[in-house]
Design brief:
By secondary structure, this protein is mainly α. It has one domain: AhpD-like (Up-down Bundle), CATH 1.20.1290.10. Helix content is 73%, strand content 0%. It has eight helices and no strands. Helix 6 packs antiparallel against helix 7. The chain starts with a helix and ends with a helix.
Amino acid sequence: MSIEALKARIPDFAKDVRLNLSSLASDESLGQQTKWGLLLAVAVASRNSEVAHAIGVEAAGHLSAEALTAARAAASIMAMNNVYYRFVHLSSNKEYATMPAKLRMNVIAHPGVPKADFELWSLAVSAVNGCGLCIDSHEKVLRDHGVDAATVQAAVRYAAIVQSVAVAIEAGDAEAAAVAQAA
């Protein structure tokens, strides 16, 4: 499956989502590795196998093996960190913030791609997963690496669009199943 096939799967009620996905395919505001790693990381974070597969197939044509691994690693490590650090942030008991996390996360220090790319992918996944503490942390690292606000905003826009594709496809499938069951 390709991104074109994904666009065809988006129901008519989500036409804006289809148009937004089309705009990502032609967007040249990010470098190829940054763009395709970002798309793959947020597709994996969407937890929709169809979206992850379609974007993964296309990303494979644009990324090295190391970058493919790093994008998947960003989604995986942030799945863990976003749960933990969102808890620390949201808990009214501030003692948790003083305790060591005891989570292995060596890939953050040695992702196999430039640090700014990995941090951008991690920030976008953190936006999908709703972890404010992680968003702030990754945004600070990005700014320290000279990444501008427009690039950070683009990454979150990519995340929002890919997440909305997953939701629209799932909603369309549920609607079709309900219609079929009623028939």
